[in-house]
Amino acid sequence: MDKRTDINNASFAYGISLLRMLLDMNLITQEEYEKITRISAEYYDTEVVCV
C-alpha cells in the first residue's frame, strides 16, 4: 500500500466511527448510515468494507 491508500483508509475508518456515534445517538437512521457508508467507501476508494 502507498501513503495515499493509508490516508484514505484512516479517513474512511474515522468517518465510519463518527457515523456510528450519530447512529447510537439516534441522530441518523440506519438507512442514512448505510447510504453514507456506501458513498464514503466509493469516495475513499475502499475495496473491503466491514462495518
Descriptive tags:
2 helices, elongated, mainly alpha
Description:
The structure is a single chain. With 51 residues, this protein is mainly α. The protein contains two helices and no strands. It starts with a helix and ends in an 8-residue tail after the last helix. The model has no long low-confidence stretch (mean pLDDT 91).
Helix and strand topology:
Layout lengths: L2 H22 L5 H14 L8
Helix pairs in contact: 1-2
Main sheet makeup: none
Average pLDDT confidence is: 91
Please report the distance between the alpha carbons of the first and last residues: 21 Å
Q: How much β-strand is present in the residues?
A: under 5%
Task: Give a short summary of the structure.
The chain has helices spanning 3-24, 30-43.
